[in-house]
Design brief:
The protein has about 110 residues and is mainly alpha-helical. The chain has helices spanning about 20-45, 50-75, 85-95, and strands spanning about 5, 80-85. Pfam families: Coat_F.
């Protein structure tokens, strides 16, 4: 039986009261940046004008970098944890999909 293992740094303590604290503000900004990167991704997929596409691409990259920096800050302070991948499940998924390479456009 495999136990899931959490990957997380020690948590930086912040006041726990009704007022928003540093963690709350950074979490709110991270959620906003995630939403914005998703929206810019959709806009990039649907941009018909090359000049607009290039402008959106630059903004998307800035937004994505900001999102990554906020994620790193949250992770560094122990405010964001992830579940470690189960090695057996990863191997099973790899075996299941390893035969699909002939369906991929760039593998031939």
């Amino acid at each position: 039986m495999n136990q899931s293992q959490k990957v997380q740094n020690p948590e930086t303590n912040v006041p726990k009261n009704p007022q928003m604290n540093e963690r709350d503000f950074v979490n709110d900004m991270l959620a906003t940046e995630k939403y914005m990167t998703d929206s810019y991704c959709t806009a990039l997929n649907e941009a018909s004008c090359q000049h607009l596409y290039q402008d959106l691409s630059g903004i998307f990259n800035e937004t994505q970098n900001c999102q990554r920096n906020l994620y790193n800050l949250m992770f560094k302070n122990g405010w964001y944890g992830i579940e470690a991948a189960d090695q057996q499940k990863m191997q099973q998924a790899h075996q299941q999909f390893s035969g699909y390479t002939n369906q991929l456009p760039y593998m031939n």
